[in-house]
Amino acid sequence: MGIALYQILQQVGLPAPAMHMETLLGSDANLTSLICDLLSSMRPLIQQHNVSLDALGNLETLLDRIQAEVVASNTVVSFVPLEGVWARKPMSTSKRVVGEETESVRRVFVNGLY
Fold this sequence. Notes:
alpha+beta, 2 domains, three-stranded antiparallel β-sheet, elongated
């Protein structure tokens, strides 16, 4: 859902959320294998939606080709960005109690994660 969550949370009645994004960067074989593993795990869905992977060439050699290119160019690659989104909605005045927290936290679950 990505940055669309900013508007989605507001559409469901929450105030504009705070957002945080992290992207793993690296050049080691463990990171490049994560990229290929992710692609492999998504392969059934990719085929179901008739998305062409022809531009990637032979998927059996993709990991070796990516790692060779990373080493040859002396650079890093990125993994899928992970996003955190949160918002606080004030409690209605009828629910406020003196001495207790004046806001409740509403967590929006996305794909089983929050």
